[in-house]
């Protein structure tokens, strides 16, 4: 089945809507959520003299704790995003751990496929969606 470029959009191959709730999260919201989460981790790490390892540890703990419980980190939720398994459903416990480990490495998060899913999401079998 061939579609024209006009009919193709991020998330189409995954059966997601083009826009609105349940569509692929766009770059602006993703970056905003990342800044919120990283900024909060930076501020909290002030209790540890802004140790870079403490910042990463707090950031990782936030992701690993909140993705399975609230379907996203505080930054995700503030920007109306949620993380779920491809095909729908709860992300589980191991997916947020793998996703976060790859997110901290940065490179997997900035290499995307045509559905705007980073390698960290592809490896974990997750997708970041609009609320």
TrEMBL record:
It is found in: Cell membrane. Residues 53-125 form the RDD domain. The keyword DNA repair does not apply. Keywords: Cell membrane, Membrane, Transmembrane, Transmembrane helix. GO terms for cellular component: plasma membrane. It is a multi-pass membrane protein. The keyword Cell membrane applies. InterPro entries: Pra-immunoreactive, RDD, UCP021697. The chain crosses the membrane at residues 53-72, 93-112. This is RDD family protein.
């Amino acid at each position: 089945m061939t579609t024209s470029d006009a009919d193709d959009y991020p998330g189409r191959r995954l059966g997601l809507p083009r826009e609105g709730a349940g569509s692929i999260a766009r770059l602006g919201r993703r970056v905003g959520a990342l800044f919120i989460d990283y900024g909060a981790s930076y501020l909290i790490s002030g209790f540890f003299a802004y140790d870079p390892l403490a910042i990463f540890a707090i950031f990782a703990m936030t992701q690993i704790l909140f993705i399975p419980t609230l379907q996203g980190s505080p930054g995700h939720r503030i920007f109306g995003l949620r993380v779920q398994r491809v095909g729908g459903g709860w992300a589980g416990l191991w997916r947020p751990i793998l996703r976060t480990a790859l997110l901290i490495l940065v490179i997997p998060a900035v290499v995307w496929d045509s559905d705007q899913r980073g390698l960290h999401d592809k490896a974990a079998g997750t997708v970041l969606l609009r609320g």
